[in-house]
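We now fix the convention by which a protein and its fold are recorded. The integers have meaning only within a learned vocabulary of local backbone shapes. The record below shows the convention in full.
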Amino acid sequence: MTENGDVVLYSEDIRWDINVNTIENGGEKVIELSWGWTAGMSDEQIAGLADDCPSGHASVLVNYDQALDLISELAATLSQFPHPGRKDE
């Protein structure tokens, strides 16, 4: 939390889990990718949090083609990372 009470969602020190949901947006079925303290939580769950609990999240909406592009880009990027379970190492 910052000095003025804002919750930090973007920091070089935080590694968020990415929540994936399918939602309707303007009659179109899209994928919501969200991260942050309350990502993936329902309104009821958020309402039940303690007053001093960190909250807030950010999200982006992507369509089917954008999701496929993201999968390809992630696969290409991941192939550059060492991983103990990979057979080529």
